[in-house]
Amino acid sequence: MKALAGIVLGAALLVWPAALNRYPLVFSDTGALLAQTVEGWAIWDKPLVYGPLLHAFHWRITLWLPLAAQGLVLSWLLWLVQRSLGGVGPGRHVLLCAGLAAATAAPWFAALLLPDWLAPALVLAIFLLGFAEAGLGRVERAALALLVLLAAAAHLSHLPVAAALVLLVLAVRRALRPALRCAWPLAGAVALLLATNAWSQGRWAVSPYGAVFALARLTADGPAARTIEARCPAAGWHLCRWAGRLPADSDDFLWSGSGPVWAARTDGAQPGGPISLAPEAAAILAETLRREPLGVLRAAAGNAWRQLGMARVGDTLGPENLQASVARQLALGFPPAEQARFAASLQAQGRLGPAAAPFLLLHPLVLLLGAAGTLLAWRRAAGMRPLGLVLCVLVGITANAAATGALSGPHDRYQARIAWLLPLAALLAGPLARRDDAGKGAPA
User: Fold this and answer.
1) Of the ranges 201-205, 259-263, 318-322, which one carries the lowest mean pLDDT score?
2) Residue among 77, 82, 92 nearest 122 (CA)
3) Model pTM?
4) Which of 9, 259, 311, 413 could form a disulfide with 419 if both were Cys (CB 3.0 to 4.6 A apart)?
């Protein structure tokens, strides 16, 4: 009972920004994810995974319920990680959660109803399955495997992160069984994406229209724009209309109503938009890779490097587009009381950013200290488990930057969601965990 109380209290600490806001934190994408079940929409750019998970908890009653679930899962993961590294008690666990809540971005993503919080959860879960499996009970291993499966499928950027971590486990453990223990949930995530896309989009594909995102990124970086200029007008592409004047910002390319993706087509292709553009985007990407392979690699590496340095909370706190997205879905599928709670939130009123600002001041310093502490722990970690945690965090953070920066473009949200693992690893894999592995992590 004490362990359960510690996990519950830790969960409350990890979602405290929702109390400041008077409502769970949301983003415009949250509205699209709600629409997957409220309106039954097959959203073209989002896997049919996190939206149904939200519904499994909110049941069109309140978004506070999925918020509570996120906090509990994250607190439970932190409990298991602490236990695997030398024992844990309720007091120590609550102290760790309080420190993360006060000085890192962890609570700002645990309290945000987006799949972003699952990126660090994925890293921690694969660490436990790959490096600390001996201290897990059968139910815990099954629950962690399910978490890896859902986390990897919930956002397309999580797939390469999971793949990189599986390869890390194989390289460090030098044994097939631990790697397979992490790999089969990843295979399950791929199967889930294939099945849900076949059902909702009519296409057996991991990302039916992902080529549009990659094209937006390479157009902004230059290589794809040069391909379009070189091949048009002879190629007859829809994008030939924009040759020489393509948007230099990938977000403008993707979302502008008058831009290349959403502008009315002259060839009559239906339904238009990204769905009709995807085949052409794939052809342009293939041509670009043939023409400028080194240019593509340089652009990807530059974006990944930029993404590593962008980790501030802030671009998810504003009210932009929330009325047209989240408020609309609440009006369509939730009781009036829930709509009123959202309308009364600081975020809906545009006041969350200023209210949050004082709590974010420590984050850059703590990240720098965490990065230094993690690198020091890498050299001094005593035992496979502390070393495994450090390597999982470093590989996870790097793979996350490569996947999001290179494929979608650098944004603070993408790295802030996972960078808080650095101070966590510094604390747990440093002096607090410097002891022999023998006897660690017996199931409680």
Assistant:
1) 259-263
2) 77
3) 0.94
4) 311
In this model, does residue 431 exceed pLDDT 80? no
What letter does residue 264 receive in the DSSP assignment?
P
Question: Cα–Cα distance between 69 and 49 in angstroms, integer?
Answer: 16
Cis omega before residue 233 (within 30°)? yes
Domain residue extents for the chain? 2-155+157-202+314-433, 210-291
Q: How far apart are CA 52 and CA 38, in angstroms?
A: 10
Q: What is the pLDDT of residue 439?
A: 40
Q: What percent of the chain has pLDDT over 90?
A: 80
Per the CB < 8 A criterion, the answer to whether 66 and 362 are in contact is no
Q: Cα separation of 422 and 408, whole Å?
A: 23
Contact by Cβ (8 Å): 75, 3:
no
Other CB atoms closer than 10 Å to residue 266's CB: what's the count?
Answer: 8
